[in-house]
Specification:
The chain has 345 residues and is α/β, with parallel strands linked by helices. The chain has 13 helices and 14 strands. A 10-stranded mixed sheet has the order 3-4-5-6-9-10-11-12-13-14. A two-stranded parallel sheet has the order 1-2. A two-stranded antiparallel sheet has the order 7-8. The protein binds S-adenosyl-L-homocysteine (SAH) and iron/sulfur cluster. Iron/sulfur cluster (SF4) binds next to helix 4.
């Protein structure tokens, strides 16, 4: 069966014509898929034989709402979506003054095993197809009746561990014939799969690369992020410098502040030295506590002291506002609660 929503329009045209149908039908099918139609017989302007052919040879990926939570404090909405095989992923929609931003998942679970992360604790099931990543956006837009203008790939999973599907998704979602969300409005977050950062730099995508750093030295980082044993900081930062040189895009670093683990003055100084001369921005995030982990967020005064040191060293940093704190809005947590109740993981 062909995953029809993952095809570029040119591929759909080839597929249609190779099977004896006129090329213009591809655009009609494409338009229906963009509208979020999930059954071929809803495509009213297609002839019956084409609908029968499509139904027999293709499938349309879905993200069905299993659960929806809306924050009482802000307009953040969190979805638990059910995929065709009964797997679940989480998606969060945030409302900002400049529009709606969506945080999508790229895998069911994650192999990377970061100790502070709810997704990392749940193990790995499978990667999502490009169409399943798209379907999260379409389902959310349809449900909320809004147009989403920004995308962050910061939900469940490691995007660069699902490289081909993620790059396909990026091209599809930003194409004029697709949802047409510009690359400049897309951020991809990675824990630091170094070879894939080099590959990504060559794709000529104008996205923002966000790197989850969370520690200023190998010893501290390896304790919470096993990926650091394979790709230590020296190699990671070198790849980031190369990424900037090739793309001219400023890198953004995520740094979850954990009480007593990575939030000392010394850590801030080491971090400034590590990133010296790199055009970047640091997002400091007070760590979200996760079931089964004893990490606590850094105290407010620590956050201030840390940011002051960075600023004095000329490194741009901000403490990120936490949205949807009442609805487990950091990814991995809703699914965990859901499957826990079902007697899952
Ligand atoms: N796998 C990718 C993207 C998904 S995780 C990555 O790791 O970058 C999205 C972001 O949430 C990452 O920066 C990750 O480190 C962060 N994160 C995970 N668990 C967190 C927690 N408990 N508190 C704060 N940030 C967390
Ligand atoms: Fe995976 Fe990112 Fe969570 Fe690490 S932080 S386990 S890479 S989803």
């Amino acid at each position: 069966m062909t995953d029809i929503k993952s095809l570029y329009l040119s591929e759909l045209q080839n597929f249609i014509t190779e099977n004896g149908f006129p090329k213009f039908r591809a655009k009609q099918i494409h338009d229906w898929l963009n509208k979020g139609v999930t059954y071929f017989d809803e495509m009213h302007n297609l002839p019956k034989n084409l609908i029968e052919f499509l139904s027999a040879s293709c499938y349309i990926s879905v993200a069905n709402i299993e659960k929806k939570l809306t924050s009482r404090y802000d307009k953040t909405v969190k979805y638990l979506f059910r995929l065709y095989d009964g797997e679940f992923v989480e998606t969060v929609v945030m409302s900002y003054h400049h529009g709606y931003s969506i945080c999508v998942s790229t895998q069911v679970g994650c192999k990377m095993g970061c100790t502070f992360c709810a997704t990392g604790k749940s193990g790995f099931s499978r990667s999502l197809s490009a169409s399943e990543i798209l379907a999260q956006i379409e389902s959310a837009q349809r449900d909320l009746g809004v147009r989403i203008s920004n995308i962050v790939l910061m939900g469940m999973g490691e995007p660069l561990d699902n490289y081909d599907n993620v790059v396909r998704f990026l091209r599809l979602v930003s194409s004029e014939q697709g949802l047409n969300i510009g690359m400049r409005h897309i951020t991809l977050s990675t824990c630091g799969l170094v070879p894939k950062i080099y590959d990504l730099a060559n794709e000529e995508l104008a996205i923002t690369l966000s790197v989850s750093l969370h520690a200023p030295d190998d010893e501290t980082r390896s304790k919470t992020m096993p990926v650091n044993n394979t790709y230590p900081l020296k190699d990671l930062i070198k790849a980031c410098r190369d990424y900037f040189d090739k793309t001219g895009r400023r890198i953004s670093f995520e740094y979850a502040m954990i009480d007593g683990v990575n939030d000392s003055d010394e850590c801030a100084k080491k971090l400034a030295a590590l990133l010296n001369g790199l055009n970047c921005h640091i997002n400091l995030i007070p760590v979200n506590s996760v079931k089964g982990s004893s990490f606590k967020k850094s105290k407010l005064e620590r956050q201030r002291a840390f940011i002051n040191i960075l600023e004095k060293k000329g490194i741009a940093a901000t403490v990120r506002r936490t949205l949807g704190s009442d609805i487990n809005a950091s990814c991995g947590q809703l699914k965990r609660n859901h499957t826990d109740k079902e007697g899952g993981i």
